[in-house]
Structure prediction request, 80 residues.
Amino acid sequence: MWTGAHREKPLSGKTRVRVQAEAASLKTQTRSLSRNRISAETETVIRARDANTARLKDQRLNKEALDRAAAATAPGMPLP
Prediction:
């Protein structure tokens, strides 16, 4: 008759070592996955920042070119 009391057998030395090794392996794998995720997120942020910087630089260079062209065509204005 089952009374609800469940007793676990003590682990043998070899099984205990295996359980500990698996736990250590899982912990290492979890850390590695976390580092990879963080690294991927960081890379995404860096790429977005670089793209934004390049876009802003392009806009600035275009504006400066337009300003120089406007200054060159303005009568009586010295060229920069």
Notes: DSSP finds one helix and no strands in the chain.
